[in-house]
Write a sequence for this structure.
């Protein structure tokens, strides 16, 4: 998997891939080289997930009649 | 009862009670009226009030066991429909209605309409679980259809903020009650569903009376929810309120807060999940490496060395063997040589003329010291020397005899 492929993964896809990678590694099905590659890829995937979370900021908008968006604030 | 007889009060009341109890109509009737003199007796939980119609009143009792499921609070002047049975309370002699069920007037029809629509849509399969779309693991972009000012949106957003403050929320403001409300809700649903940009749509409002929640029991709203390609979560009213929208939506949440919890993971749980996965990755690579390392250690330190040792031992043994063989061979050769030498010596000894002469043999030589081995070499009248081991004798041949000793023939006579 290239860096670009990894960057394009959604959070859910990355989590799924991680789970599959872990399963393979824990089942001891891999050669040493594949294990190391899987480990490196796994670490990249966790980092990718963290990145997605840290970049995803909460944003609250209100959809207006004319289709534009306005920032929404909760009235206390 | 007989006309001339005199009865006690209790006998009259009991008689009256018996008549009332035997009247089918009076045992289950619905009475409409305005509530007055409402009293909620605190320790017991029973409710006492009168139903009023202009200048007519009917006393009513609503026991706690029946009134605890009431979804509205009765109040003075409220027009209600009470359903129950009538009887006499002997102690006061009052004729009263024992209420089983109480609802605001008009709600009965609404409820009937609700039940009818529910049955109809259910028959058409709009509530079938087969049509329910699963919610995404995380709904990153959420469309919320609700009033922008109500408690519902506040509860919803507060919960999101606390639980998972990473979402993009777009609120489509609608009236959640009133005449225009169903149309606004269906328009909003269609609008937000058409772009396919939302992971989930949340239709929500806070609690209210059946009448106030009526937009969510609208057939057009129900069909629009059913047709939406985006998963729809319905969260209308409180835990106890059910709407048609709840039944037809892909997922029902009991409250706006529950809806927010339903569409998001808990951020702490999620972060923990990721860090658990990280730990698992690290420990499994560690395991794999240490297993490999052990194997390597085993082959290098144990197996390979043992293999080398084996070869070394083998070679050493072979050297030993060869050495042994060499030594043995050398000894053998030596021995062989010795015995050969001995036999040669023996042979040499037997062949030594000196030894032969020791045994009494003599050698005859001519004057030229040639050894005479045959009678042919000897002439009569010739001088020969006979050599003894310890001296020689000069002889003159007189006769020569031919043949083996004792068988000699004449002509070659001689003595020896």
């Amino acid at each position: 998997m290239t860096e670009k492929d990894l960057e394009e993964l959604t959070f859910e896809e990355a989590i799924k891939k991680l789970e599959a990678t872990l399963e393979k590694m824990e089942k001891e099905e891999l050669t040493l080289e594949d294990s190391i590659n899987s480990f490196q890829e796994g670490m990249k995937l966790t980092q990718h997930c963290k990145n997605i979370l840290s970049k995803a900021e909460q944003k609250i908008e209100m959809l207006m009649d004319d289709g534009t968006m306005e920032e929404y604030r909760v009235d206390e | 009862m007989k006309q001339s007889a005199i009865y006690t009060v209790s006998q009259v009341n009991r008689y009256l009670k018996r008549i009332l109890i035997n009247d089918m109509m009076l045992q289950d009737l619905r009475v409409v009226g305005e509530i007055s003199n409402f009293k909620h007796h605190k320790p017991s939980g029973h409710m006492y009030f009168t139903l009023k119609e202009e200048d007519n009143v009917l006393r009513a009792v609503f026991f706690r066991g029946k009134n605890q499921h009431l979804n509205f609070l009765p109040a003075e002047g409220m027009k209600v429909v009470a359903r129950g049975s009538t009887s006499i309370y002997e102690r006061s002699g009052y004729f009263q209605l024992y209420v089983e069920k109480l609802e605001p007037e008009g709600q009965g029809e609404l409820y009937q309409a609700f039940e009818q629509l529910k049955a109809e849509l259910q028959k058409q399969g709009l509530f079938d679980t087969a049509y329910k779309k699963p919610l995404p693991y995380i709904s990153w972009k959420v469309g919320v259809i609700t009033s922008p000012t109500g408690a519902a949106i506040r509860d919803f957003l507060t919960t999101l903020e606390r639980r998972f403050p990473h979402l993009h929320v777009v609120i489509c403001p609608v009236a959640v009650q009133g005449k225009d409300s169903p149309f606004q809700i269906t328009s909003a649903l269609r609008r937000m569903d058409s772009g396919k940009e939302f992971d989930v749509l949340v239709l929500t409002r806070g609690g209210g009376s059946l009448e106030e929640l009526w937009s969510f029991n609208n057939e057009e709203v129900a069909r629009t929810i059913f047709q939406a390609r985006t998963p729809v979560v319905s969260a209308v009213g409180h835990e106890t309120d059910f709407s048609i929208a709840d039944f037809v939506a892909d997922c029902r949440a009991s409250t706006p807060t529950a809806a927010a919890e339903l569409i998001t993971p808990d951020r702490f749980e999620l972060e923990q999940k990721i860090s658990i996965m990280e730990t698992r990755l690290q420990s499994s690579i560690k395991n794999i490496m240490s297993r490999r390392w052990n194997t390597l250690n085993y082959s290098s330190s144990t197996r390979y060395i043992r293999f080398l040792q084996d070869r070394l031992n083998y070679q050493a043994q072979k050297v030993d063997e060869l050495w042994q063989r060499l030594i043995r061979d050398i000894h053998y050769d030596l021995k062989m040589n010795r015995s050969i030498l001995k036999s040669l010596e023996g042979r040499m000894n037997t062949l030594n003329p000196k030894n032969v002469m020791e045994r009494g043999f003599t050698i005859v030589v001519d004057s030229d010291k040639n050894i005479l081995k045959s009678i042919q070499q000897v002439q009569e009248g010739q001088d020969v020397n006979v050599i003894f081991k310890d001296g020689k004798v000069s002889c003159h041949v007189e006769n020569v005899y031919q043949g083996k000793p004792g068988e000699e023939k004449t002509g070659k006579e001689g003595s020896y």
Summary: DSSP finds three helices and two strands in chain A. The mean pLDDT of chain A is 85.
